[in-house]
Prior knowledge:
Number of domains: 1
Order of helices and strands: EHEHEEHEHEEEHEHEHE
Structural class: alpha/beta
Shape: globular
CATH topology: Rossmann fold
Number of helices: 7
CATH class: Alpha Beta
Helix content: 25-40%
Number of strands: 11
CATH architecture: 3-Layer(aba) Sandwich
Amino acid sequence: MARAVRGPPGTVDVVDDVATAFAETVLAAYGARPGPRFVLVLSGGPTARRCYEALARSGADRVDWSVVDIYMGDERCVAPDDPDANQRLVREALIDRVGAVGSFRPMSCGEGPEAYEQLVSEVAAFDVVHLGLGPDGHTASLFPNSPALAAPPGRLVMRSVDPDDRNPHPRMTLTLEGLARARLVVFTVSGDAKHEAFAAVSAGADLPAAHVRARHVVWLVDREAAGQVGPTAVQGTGPTGAAEGDG
């Protein structure tokens, strides 16, 4: 019998393979999209790379990529082809593998948050926002004690730095209000190194990832990150708190 795992607000699925589960979740959302286009907001990091490679494989014959519009949830202020650039990861792991997409809107620190906020404000709702979880509890580039967590009402994009200097590079990031424009937020959490952060968020710690709200929030967590040994567990943990700004 599946063993329940306490988790943060939303649905927590403990899975064998986070990348495969992510791909299937996105494909299900694509199939159920309410309009002709499909808007994805993507991120960076090793788990994200595996997720996008899995999505490229699984979606090769199941997605009309010409109707998919891709935005970024955050970006490091580095050159677009820098190894640390999230947009480079998205291109390599997904876009280059599927051939082309309807549009790709990378963040540009040079153009600044106002320009990207204008782009974001033109989107009624994001169909799927993909987020990770840092060992310190950050998500996107919303770090503990960051002023971006207290963005003024209406601000969808802000510059951000890690006040504790644990994460390199100045950044740009969607704010909590920006993330709340999602129909579905999918967190992917993988590995022993993320267990402490996931446990803290699950216990209600005041960490950035715990404050993400959207119409629906799903956490895809492997057993190592969940601290679970045994059968896969799935548990809904209550409402996700649809926020103002959802389309």
